Amino acid sequence: MNIGIVGLGLIGGSLGLDLRRQGYRVLGLSRRPETCRAAIARGVVDDADVNFTLMAKAKVIFICTPLSAILPTVEQLIPFLAADTVLTDVGSVKTPVVEAITPLWHNFVGGHPMAGKTESGLDAAQANLFLGQPYVITPLATTPVTAVESVEFLVKALGAKLYHCSPQAHDRAVAWISHLPVMVSAALISACMSESNPLVLSLAQHIASSGFRDTSRVGGGNPELGVMMARYNRQELLRTLKSYRQQLDFFIDCIEKEEWGVLEEKLMQTQQARPDFLDS
Ligand code: NAP
Fold this sequence. Notes:
Helices cover 53% and strands 12% of the residues.
């Protein structure tokens, strides 16, 4: 079976590597000819082009462009598709994507692999990126069962853990565990940079170790992706950021008043709660 991938960057390239290893013929489309050539050379795709005609041969197509390009890409793609072609996307926000594309293409299943890394672009693509990671799909009641089953089958072939939910539930949940952490982590790096004593700043930069590496990782990632999260999931992200600000005020208050018992109780609660997010 031919699988199409539009947007040969970190996610599109990683999908190509895994799907080819599963024996699928992978056809790629990207904006720049050099990315298409590099994708063929790296074995990410069997063939690639900047021209949409190549996608006419694909049964299932993954749209892996930046969020802002998903809708324009689908609009350009539609004239080349057979009626039974299944479209899915990997965008980090689902409600605006699903609401915009469903009226244009019936066989569309929103999706979001919960896997990534700090680097972006084709060079960052890696095999097994999705192995053991959650992969959320957000079909609607009207989405054809055959389209949902096609995407489910491929997600399972990647070794990912499949989850179903509504686009709205997805966006509210990822605001907490993905989009808020990007902003918090970026704010952490920015706050550290505001140290006014250059000697102290330099010392901090030299002695930063695993704790800073863990907490700054997502704030040091692709800026375009962070802006897209904020633009497309604005309401949910604002809601979580305001809640986070309240939590910061709580910590400031405890420390100013030297309420060490209250602080300890809070830290015991967070210590207990963390595994529920990571081990479930
Ligand atoms: P990326 O590494 O920057 O790759 C995006 C690729 O899309 C670029 O390599 C670019 O290729 C191509 N592209 C850009 N505009 C295009 C257009 N108009 N038409 C065709 N191709 C275009 O980004 P990514 O991290 O893979 O993210 C892609 C999608 O995955 C986004 O929607 C994002 O929300 C989602 N996602 C990201 C992560 C993550 O952690 N990074 C995780 C889950 C989901 P050229 O070289 O040809 O310009």
